[in-house]
Amino acid sequence: MGSLADTSVPHPFDPLSIEEIQTAVSVVKKAHGDVRFNVVSLLEPRKAEMQAWLEKPDTTPPPTRFANIVVIAPGGKVYDGLVDIKGGKIVEWEHMEGMQPIITMEELQVVEHKIRTDPRVIEQCVISGISESDMDKVYCDPWTIGYDERHGSLVRLQQALMYYRPHIDDCQYQYPLDFCPIYDAGKGEIIDIDIPKIRRPLRLEEKINYTAAAVEKAGGYRTDLKPINITQPEGVSFKLTGREIEWQNWKFHIGFNYREGIVMNNITFNDKGTVRPIFYRLSLAEMVVPYGNPEHPHQRKHAFDLGEYGAGYMTNSLSLGCDCKGSIHYIDAHFPTRSGAINTIKNAICIHEEDDGILFKHTDFRDESTIVTRARKLIIQQVFTAANYEYAVQWVFHQDGTIQPDIRLTGILQTYSILEGEDTHGWGTQVYPGVNAHNHQHLFSLRIDANVDGPKNTVFMADAVPSDAPVGSPENYYGNAFYAKRTKLATTGESKTDYNGATSRTWDICNTNKLNPYSKKPVSYKLVSREVPGLLPKEGSLVWKRAGFARHAVHVTKYKDDQLFPAGQHVPQTSGEPSRGLPEWMGDGTESIDNEDIVLWHTFGVTHIPAPEDFPVMPAEPITLLLRPRNFFTSNPVMDVPPSYASTPSQVLAGGKGVIDATDKFSKLAFSNGANGKSCCA
Amino acid sequence: MGSLADTSVPHPFDPLSIEEIQTAVSVVKKAHGDVRFNVVSLLEPRKAEMQAWLEKPDTTPPPTRFANIVVIAPGGKVYDGLVDIKGGKIVEWEHMEGMQPIITMEELQVVEHKIRTDPRVIEQCVISGISESDMDKVYCDPWTIGYDERHGSLVRLQQALMYYRPHIDDCQYQYPLDFCPIYDAGKGEIIDIDIPKIRRPLRLEEKINYTAAAVEKAGGYRTDLKPINITQPEGVSFKLTGREIEWQNWKFHIGFNYREGIVMNNITFNDKGTVRPIFYRLSLAEMVVPYGNPEHPHQRKHAFDLGEYGAGYMTNSLSLGCDCKGSIHYIDAHFPTRSGAINTIKNAICIHEEDDGILFKHTDFRDESTIVTRARKLIIQQVFTAANYEYAVQWVFHQDGTIQPDIRLTGILQTYSILEGEDTHGWGTQVYPGVNAHNHQHLFSLRIDANVDGPKNTVFMADAVPSDAPVGSPENYYGNAFYAKRTKLATTGESKTDYNGATSRTWDICNTNKLNPYSKKPVSYKLVSREVPGLLPKEGSLVWKRAGFARHAVHVTKYKDDQLFPAGQHVPQTSGEPSRGLPEWMGDGTESIDNEDIVLWHTFGVTHIPAPEDFPVMPAEPITLLLRPRNFFTSNPVMDVPPSYASTPSQVLAGGKGVIDATDKFSKLAFSNGANGKSCCA
Hints:
Two copies of one chain form a homodimer. Chain A is mainly beta. In chain A, the strands form four sheets. Chain A has a 22-stranded mixed β-sheet that branches. Chain A has a four-stranded antiparallel β-sheet with strand order 2-3-4-5, with helices on one face. In chain A, strand 28 (about 505-515) and strand 29 (about 520-530) form a beta hairpin. Chains A, B: Belongs to the copper/topaquinone oxidase family. Chains A, B: Keywords: Copper, Disulfide bond, Manganese, Metal-binding, Oxidoreductase, TPQ.
């Protein structure tokens, strides 16, 4: 297995090709002249039309390909448009008054050069203790301003988080500066500088670095790691047709866009010959990283990494043997540059399999007859760099029908300066002399466009609770009764629910129209998520207003086309008044989500109280959750995975005759050639 | 690296050798004649004596080797004893009135033969619909009775959970019978049968099996999985000296006993030349599996798998390429048989390394200079079979100082019969026609004998909470302030704490005598555990009384020798009045645990509401938690792990000169020989 079909006609879910982007750009340029391209991206097909096509792809015309366009015209005017690619025409064009679209990598690159020559910035650098001749050693991460009530949203602004980097190879985040220039992208100049009341001059403490030179100086790399080689001499077990992947009964389309990065559409599972839909679309749709230091202007540090910068735009070009090991398939990503040229990110997505330990095992204690079957997992991965941080996002597919989003946080802490002996007041940690890493959260919004055995689904909240009947009562004499209390979330208002660790709360996405024939419970996928901190910025706070999606662990909406991004379509410089995106879509809370085409929005993540271990580069911290089939199959769906070893009682009695021994012959004893091992289990 | 030193003198933590067991047995036999051996196991050295030896092993005499002995004498009398092995003498011998020691595998094997010939059992089988001539097809899992108030603890009893197995190779748990014989181990006979009010005759529904024959009949094994080979051609990166392992700055002793299975002692981390103690001892010390069906006699189903059966006694003999892949080292376990002979479990423990994805990564968005370093993990594993269930227990050591207990639950659900159309009342799920799998929990007790930079430690509870100051107040104007609220657990009473998912609660094991020089916070290990259901059997219930350890997520005690097993030394047939073990050790709650030698007991696990997917054999369900160094190191401790790829800005400027490219050359593109790949990141 394993081939790449040549598909000249794009699948309706395919991202825009280079040619399609070029067409859209040229159509827009022709009509509107010299604009800067912010977004040229597939408008995903309307669901009704797409479902019709998916049902009969051979006889239904494919949905028309449209490009979503966002441009910034001279004077900073923002336009949203829609281009019919085949038709070569603009079908929508709207001036977005007071909206600021996503910040592109090119915009991130610009500001650093501006600050180095700005007299007021130079003045502040000198006050901090940097010589005017050292301005080439001053750097900044030029975030969007987020929101600042003094500046509003009519002007496109970036805040420059400032650092001093004595040598070009030094860690960007060791020498933070205490002031914050504000850059006007329209004017192309610094318009203001936020200067804190308490000044914190540059502290030139001893350098700490993770570069090879620094490690060599500190004693060199460790030499006691022996290689581990992972190979698939017979090839991989997955098959790609265009961007549709098939693996172990799974089939789905792998998309990618500037904003969410990887998007998976039309996820189905072949259940003994019946192709059963599970999710129409699955992605990380947004995230917010609020920082917990109340001192002005740190409240502006609450990056919406997807909505403000884009997990696609920031994605890394991955490499063989570095980001994954084994047999890897890569997919590139194509985006427009600001001028309308093509920026290709090679190897934006990597796809590979991994051995995953024991899939199932059982031994009969009577005779030691045993079955042990190893698991395999499929990983669709991207890594994106959000200035200081790295997010390695893995979408893990398991053979048993489980989907596991699995994120590793690494990269570098966002840092601020601290005086010798200064109290952090608990809002941060001095992770190194002079380096204050503020408390922060990483809150992700997982968007689950449910399609569990069909589009009409219902979400139930499930809590494991004791029986109400007291100990000693006839109904619960010994007090051991407990059960899963299920609460239907019938309206958008009811769906706003929080995590409860005490009841091991889960949420079941059910198709109540189809009961499991044995359990008589609705077929379902269960959201099992345990890293679910609440949004710590308070109700009514700036972050609370802007990141409405993060107020609850779960929201459910009735599906509507274009409701994709839960902090709003254009996130930079939203005030949160009103809260854009999900809070709007929740409406007055009365809309029915009972047996409807629904979308579940799940907020999960971590609260990070930094420690010196995280500096100057952070060992990866994992976050994960599971989407598990429950009452979906009629039995264990992986019994037909070939076992490594299987013996039955009758085979044991027969002295081993008929036993399956498919033990991997590449595994070896660590220290000898057989003295300590045995063939298997017998 | 990688050698096995020949060590003829046992390390004081080593389990008893075959010779030592034989010596102890012969000493006991000589003194007490024909007894049945229940336990012959190392009495671990007294801590004070052991610490003295660990400090100066060359000049301090090693602690005396003692064997803990438990025997059952004729008449069912239970004796606990202590044998001085070198001295060849019994130094303690005590009759344990009203105590029942652990059930051994040999005891589990006996009962099935008894039930098949017992007239009353045969009568019930016939009532269930089984022909008298088919009694060889009747099986039972003969659990300890747990506790039954009608029978007390003076007589050694087992409850026979009954099944019909039409063919010897059929799944043990598909055809449950509705009655429950009670076996008196002293008399060697069935003394009673619990017969439910509602009878549920055998339902001979269509067979469901996971055997090769059954899979072949259903269409055969899938053929689309290509092999993944994992090899370490240069050997492994760990080194063993006796049972002491060294790997990536870690060093510890790997013990094993009948009860807990794997025990790790004297866990230290070499921090740039300073060997720093972390845990004196780490193990799973107990577990309880309460079932949630209140119907009599299901309240008796709440197995203490460790205290009643033993994770050592039940451990599997592991095999190359089945239970792990790669280069594996195995360690055997030796136990006494009831008669005093030796039962060796080959390959009871397996040790191996695995690649673990990205350890850390950072890219500078300015120039795409990148460092990416891959992680390695060390896994110490055992798998044990508790009648129907399998537990794969992995102790995972990470390079960054994290220890991750990682458990996979697999095997087969414990099942009971259900009538056609019968209501489960929510206490269970019909996972297959006629098969009711009752709700249950798996609650583990992780025993952490803390030694974080020395024996005097203090536990703090940490909750991530918003500032108290309201939005708009000067202290929290924008409402974004949040911090980690730390609560000292100063006494045993204060230490009884529960999980709080809303605050992402963690517990910090601190050495308050030693502050991190940068953060000024005490050096610590943080318990990050998210699978922490409460004990669902109610306060005052039988399980609540017997499994006192499971009432809270955390208890902390002051260390005392021999306080190892939190449900008590002898668990079978305890009434819970008083609650043995941990509740006793907590005392009146006033004992100081502030800056003392302490033990933290952590209850974690899952609540399992079964589904048809779990039957007839369960795809592995994972549970995990982390013990993470926080404020322990002064910086990221893995910067000296060789990167796969590292380029600095100056190297990028110099066209790549000096870049480290140690990319694994065994990784390949999935579908071609280079067209789609690139060397790395450049």
